[in-house]
Design brief:
Layout (H helix, E strand, L loop, with lengths): L9 E4 L2 H8 L4 E2 L8 E5 L2 E9 L2 E4 L20
Parallel strand pairs: 1-3
Antiparallel strand pairs: 2-5, 3-4, 4-5
């Protein structure tokens, strides 16, 4: 559990690089092969959910919501 208001969700903290990939709706690696839907956090702020699929995570945001700009740093728009 991640402790975000006792949400009951398993959580994973994403690095800056991982959160940018997540927002672009790219596939993230799931090395621990967790099997439950997980809340993705960036600097302890929830950014969305990840669905496990074998050794990777899938972003559950609709494809139309993906980040399409060429931002390199999440701080440029995630504050």
């Amino acid at each position: 559990m991640c402790g975000i208001e006792n949400s009951g969700w398993a959580c994973i903290n994403l690095t800056d690089t991982e959160v940018m990939s997540y927002l672009r709706r790219e596939t993230l690696q799931n090395p621990g092969q967790q099997s439950d839907t997980t809340l993705a956090l960036w600097k302890n702020h929830p950014v969305g959910f990840l669905s496990p699929n074998r050794n990777r995570w899938n972003n559950l945001w609709p494809m139309e919501w993906r980040l399409r700009m060429d931002a390199k740093e999440p701080e440029s728009f995630l504050v």
